[in-house]
């Protein structure tokens, strides 16, 4: 989508737009969009097409992004990940305001339209002139500016954006929003908006550590405000160091991209089942048989698949970690419950079995707590085999297109993984060595944060280097997306 720069228009067109916008209670930009739409739809007679075409050329550049004021004629900005996204950037008053200039450039390079609001204090650090030149738009500074030809009203200003970004977010701006103050343009916009808000705090480490700032941050987070930074390091204004440096412009851009969720969605429309965590097999109402699985790897895979757009159903055994965002989680305890939950979720496009399912359960778990009876000695537990959930789905009449299993082995890794691939009807097995000497971190794979896996399929074995469980998850999700794309059913 193109950005529209009203200030680049000639006076006559500007005057016409202003009049029509006022008559229709629209912003000038909105009026321009309506007129362009009407022209495209053929609602404007042929006599005026030349004028409209000229206007369109003035309004937009060839590649759809606005040309900044003062930039050489014909210079255009490339389409990027943020193409067509509208960012309202609020610059607070702090030495880090100079980094906001680079942030504007980085955002525009990626195709975003950036509209800027500066607080009075921000103008002590950077000028509206330089900000306006970089954003190629009017810079808004006053709450009530009746004379301002660009005045679009604070409600509209905050709502015509996809995201509000506060950088630098000063202690004062955070305090104002946390407490609902609206006594200047920036604070009014923040409270008037219905769009997400991202803050990049920057302040002296003592200010950041102050209980009042901590309280305000907690309140803002509870209210759904996202944060990026601050980082630890040298402060620009003094010899102090500590936590309080504003995140670097590219980190803020990454946070903006994450907020706007501009990543590709190759798995959209795909339903994927993931099992994760251990199972608990009861002995009696208070005792159970468990294993060391934390659920970290399975949950990370569910989250990674969801990030690629999949409709993920996570069937999780008892874990102490949170449900991943963007995923529908079903909580179960026992292997039989996990099997039932998985089978009820069929059909699906893919299923990934990460859970460390208990292979056995007690034949009859006691209805009452088993008491210590001295004459009888310790109870004898008779075990029976649990259903193999992966094998059941791998040979199911509603078998998903892609079935992925895991193999946790302490010996003969590849041999065992290949045997499981065949026996369980999987397309590939993610094999990991869970032996004490696996060399993965001090706590090992189970419960730890790192993993080293091999992907075993009919095509052979692919070895991945040791990496964090999140990275294993991201790579596996990408591999699943790739495989689903190429498999034609
Ligand atoms: N699995 C399952 N249901 C079970 C046992 C295992 O779905 N009852 C799945 C696991 O989620 C994993 C794969 O099967 O994807 C292999 O699990 P693993 O514990 O390594 O193998 P087992 O089949 O249990 O064999 P063994 O314990 O003898 O190695």
TrEMBL record:
Residues 86-258 form the Flavoprotein domain. Residues 272-489 are annotated as: Phosphopantothenate--cysteine ligase. Binds 1 FMN per subunit. It comes from the Bacteria. Pathway: Cofactor biosynthesis; coenzyme A biosynthesis; CoA from (R)-pantothenate: step 2/5; Cofactor biosynthesis; coenzyme A biosynthesis; CoA from (R)-pantothenate: step 3/5. Residues 267-482 form the DNA/pantothenate metabolism flavoprotein C-terminal domain. GO terms for molecular function: FMN binding; metal ion binding; phosphopantothenate--cysteine ligase activity; phosphopantothenoylcysteine decarboxylase activity. Its EC number is 4.1.1.36, 6.3.2.5. GO terms for biological process: coenzyme A biosynthetic process; pantothenate catabolic process; regulation of DNA-templated transcription. Residues 2-40 form the Antitoxin FitA-like ribbon-helix-helix domain. NCBIfam families: coaBC_dfp. In the C-terminal section; belongs to the PPC synthetase family. PANTHER family: HOMO-OLIGOMERIC FLAVIN CONTAINING CYS DECARBOXYLASE FAMILY, PHOSPHOPANTOTHENOYLCYSTEINE DECARBOXYLASE. Catalyzes two sequential steps in the biosynthesis of coenzyme A. In the first step cysteine is conjugated to 4'-phosphopantothenate to form 4-phosphopantothenoylcysteine. In the second step the latter compound is decarboxylated to form 4'-phosphopantotheine. This is Coenzyme A biosynthesis bifunctional protein CoaBC. It comes from Mesorhizobium qingshengii. The gene is coaBC.
């Amino acid at each position: 989508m193109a950005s529209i720069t009203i200030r680049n228009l000639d006076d006559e067109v500007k005057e016409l737009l202003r009049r029509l916008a006022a008559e229709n209670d629209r912003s000038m930009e909105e009026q321009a969009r309506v007129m362009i739409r009407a022209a495209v739809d053929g609602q404007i007679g042929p006599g005026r097409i030349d004028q409209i075409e000229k206007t369109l050329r003035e309004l937009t550049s060839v590649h759809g992004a606005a040309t900044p004021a003062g930039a050489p004629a014909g210079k255009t900005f490339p389409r990027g990940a943020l193409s067509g996204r509208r960012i309202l950037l609020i610059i607070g008053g702090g030495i880090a305001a100079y980094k906001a200039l680079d942030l504007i450039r980085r955002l525009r390079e990626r195709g975003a339209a950036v509209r800027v609001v500066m607080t009075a204090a921000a103008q002590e650090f950077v000028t509206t002139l330089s900000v306006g030149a970089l954003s190629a738009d009017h810079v808004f500074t006053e709450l009530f500016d009746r004379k301002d030809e660009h005045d679009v009203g604070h409600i509209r200003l905050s709502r015509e954006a996809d995201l509000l970004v506060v950088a630098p977010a000063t202690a004062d701006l955070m305090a104002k929003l946390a407490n609902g103050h609206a006594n200047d343009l920036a604070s009014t916009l923040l409270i008037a908006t219905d769009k997400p808000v991202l803050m990049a705090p920057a302040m002296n480490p003592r200010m950041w550590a102050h209980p009042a700032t901590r309280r305000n941050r907690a309140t803002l987070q509870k209210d759904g405000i996202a944060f990026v930074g601050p980082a630890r390091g040298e402060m620009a204004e003094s010899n102090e160091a500590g936590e309080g440096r504003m995140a670097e412009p590219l980190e803020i851009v990454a946070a903006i991209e994450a907020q706007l969720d501009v990543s590709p969605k190759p798995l959209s429309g795909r339903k994927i089942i993931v099992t994760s965590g251990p199972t608990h097999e009861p002995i009696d109402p208070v005792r159970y048989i468990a294993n060391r699985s934390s659920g970290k790897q399975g949950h990370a895979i569910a989250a990674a698949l969801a990030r690629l757009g999949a409709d993920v159903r996570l069937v999780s055994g008892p874990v102490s970690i949170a449900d991943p965002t963007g995923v529908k989680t079903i909580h179960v305890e026992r292997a039989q419950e996990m099997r039932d939950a998985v089978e009820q979720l069929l059909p699906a496009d893919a299923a990934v079995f990460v859970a460390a399912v208990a292979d056995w359960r007690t034949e009859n778990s006691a209805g009452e707590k088993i008491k210590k009876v001295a004459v009888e000695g310790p109870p004898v537990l008779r075990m029976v085999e649990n259903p193999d959930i992966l094998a059941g789905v791998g040979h199911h009449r509603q078998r998903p297109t892609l079935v992925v299993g895991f193999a946790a082995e302490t010996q003969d890794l590849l041999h065992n993984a290949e045997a499981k691939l065949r026996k369980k009807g999987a397309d590939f097995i993610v094999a990991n060595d869970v032996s004490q000497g696996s060399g993965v971190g001090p706590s090992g794979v189970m419960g730890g944060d790192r993993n080293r896996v091999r992907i075993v399929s009919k095509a052979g074995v692919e070895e991945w280097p040791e990496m964090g469980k999140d990275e294993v998850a991201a790579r596996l999700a990408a591999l699943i997306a790739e495989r689903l794309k190429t498999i034609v059913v």
